[in-house]
Write a structure and sequence with these properties.
Blueprint: H1 2-8, E1 15-17, E2 23-25, E3 36-37, E4 49-52, E5 57-61, E6 66-68, H2 132-135, H3 215-218, E7 263-264, E8 275-279, E9 287-292, E10 296-299
Parallel strand pairs: 3-4, 7-8
Antiparallel strand pairs: 1-2, 4-5, 5-6, 8-9, 9-10
């Protein structure tokens, strides 16, 4: 076959023909190098193959079309589809808690007396005039129907106690209260018995070496007790300040901002690589799109 003879001219390694029209290449260190071209050759024959240096993949002619091996270049992102139908209305939410009581409204104007000369209930002297001094019985400085309220009736009998309601949910934990003031200092406890000196040595607090705890001269920390806490030496000198650490690495520069970007109504046919566009292609509001030469359009 033609492809066998073509390969034989490019390969310097052992070749074996196994059966009819079958080529086997035996080599454990090299591979076959196909012809490398940037474009498809003219007038190809069926079975002709070459490595396309533009697309970075192997192509073979099947007699009608060139067939590529390996992943191809990702095509441009298609236009977004139309918006789907509106979803069903969600279930009605639970009724909110009752709001606080509103402020008392302004007092309305006195009612109009009708009925052919009848008297308003608040008109105690029957002269048809609202007189605050004598007819404002509820003391709100206005004469109106609220002054017509009679005396309270006798209290009715107390009704039966209703069944207890279900326990409500546990309320949120209250805020932590402020820390209380420090209590007064307690009385000093009785002095402990002097320590027992053993082995002939002196206690560290026994400054005069007489084996007796003497508050007046041996209570070095001023707590009215002579014990091992009086044996503490003076504080050492403050150590030197450590060296300042190195500055951290500078962070990566963020992508370019969108200030003063024009609003496009369609995707541009020749977009600039690695650039952000403001596009309203579906008429559903503008969106930010980034064009990459490797992946195509990506919505941000």
């Amino acid at each position: 076959m033609k492809i066998i003879f073509a390969l034989l001219t490019f390969i310097s390694m052992p070749l074996f023909v196994i059966g009819q029209d079958i080529l086997e290449v035996e080599n454990n260190s090299d591979g076959i190098v196909f012809p490398r071209m940037s474009t498809q050759p003219q007038s190809p024959v069926q079975g002709q193959c070459f490595f396309n240096t533009t697309l970075k993949k192997l192509e073979c002619f099947d007699g009608v079309n060139w067939v590529s091996t390996g992943p191809g270049v990702t095509g441009a992102t298609g236009t977004p589809g139309s918006q789907g139908p509106k979803g069903d209305t969600g279930a009605t939410g639970a009724t909110g808690s009752q709001g606080p009581k509103g402020d008392k409204g302004d007092t309305g104007a006195p009612g109009i007396v009708t009925g052919g000369g009848g008297l308003a209930c608040w008109d105690l002297n029957g002269n048809g005039t609202a007189e605050v001094a004598t007819e404002d019985t509820n003391g709100d400085n206005v004469v109106d129907i609220f002054d017509c309220r009679g005396a309270d009736g006798v209290a009715g009998a107390t009704g039966a106690t209703g069944a207890p309601g279900t326990q409500g949910p546990k309320g949120d934990s209250g805020a932590t209260g402020a820390t209380g003031a420090t209590g007064p200092k307690g009385d000093t406890g009785p002095m402990g018995a002097p320590g027992i000196v053993t082995g002939g040595g002196l206690a560290c607090w026994d400054l005069n070496g007489n084996g007796t705890a003497e508050v007046a001269t041996e209570d070095t920390n001023g707590d009215n007790v002579v014990n091992i806490f009086d044996c503490r030496g003076a504080n050492g000198a403050t150590g030197a300040t450590g060296a300042t650490g190195a500055n951290g690495a500078t962070g990566a520069t963020g992508p370019a901002g969108t200030a003063n970007l024009p609003l496009l109504t369609a995707f541009p046919s020749n977009p600039d690589a690695n650039r952000i566009y403001v596009i309203d292609a579906s008429q559903n509001g503008p969106g930010l799109w980034w064009y990459s030469s490797g992946t195509g359009w990506v919505q941000l």
